[in-house]
Amino acid sequence: SQQGEEDPQALSIQEGENATMNCSYKTSINNLQWYRQNSGRGLVHLILIRSNEREKHSGRLRVTLDTSKKSSSLLITASRAADTASYFCARTAGGTSYGKLTFGQGTILTVHP
Amino acid sequence: NAGVMQNPRHLVRRRGQEARLRCSPMKGHSHVYWYRQLPEEGLKFMVYLQKENIIDESGMPKERFSAEFPKEGPSILRIQQVVRGDSAAYFCASSPPSGGGTDTQYFGPGTRLTVL
Description:
The structure holds two protein chains of two kinds. By secondary structure, chain A is mostly beta strands. Chain A has no helices and eleven strands. Chain A has strands at 5-7, 10-14, 19-24, 31-37, 43-50, 55-58, 61-66, 71-76, 85-92, 102-103, 107-112. In chain A, the strands form two sheets. In chain A, strands 2, 4, 5, 9, 10 and 11 form a six-stranded mixed β-sheet that branches. A five-stranded antiparallel β-sheet of chain A has the order 1-3-8-7-6, with no helix packed on it. Chain B is mostly beta strands. Chain B has strands spanning 5-7, 10-13, 19-24, 31-37, 43-50, 53-56, 65-68, 75-79, 88-95, 106-107, 111-115. In chain B, strands 2, 4, 5, 6, 9, 10 and 11 form a seven-stranded mixed β-sheet that branches. Chain A binds chain B through residues 3, 30-31, 33, 35, 41-45, 48, 88, 90, 92, 96-106, and chain B through 31, 33, 35, 41-45, 48, 55-56, 58-59, 91, 93, 95, 100-110.
């Protein structure tokens, strides 16, 4: 399958704890993006990391990318109940896949107050 | 600057009818993408368009589905003779002309299609 794998499929934590979600893929990438989706809603873009970058930060979010292992991780620090959502990684590749986002299956994060 | 707009937000059709989903990209964006999300699944790419051109339709079912992005007006995803298996959330995304389609894609709220 060309789809990425995300793990865990579901993660349940307490407010204040950190949440780490992982994403693996099989083909080369141009960039990798992380999105959040609240239940029944659209997707909100979180971070884009390019293939020549290793780490990016945005507020409480930290994304890493290891192209040698074909994997990325999203860390949410000091989680809040409002972070409860599904999180997806999505990548773009070159060549004939130009512009097309390939999504993983997602991680369902539940943060308990 | 309004975000990506999609309408209708909810659409109910009976089997055999046609469904038309509309997407207005963000101002200044010339790349439009359509994705489908089945229940409990991630999004699957359908088609990538620029004004008056289909760039990549590798994710579009071979029959009954078509998409366009005319010079004027919104992008349209058209599903003819809908079947129950077409029930899903359909998301549109747009990105600016710079970057050749590899920049951040901004998503609309989606259209939830229910086929009775």
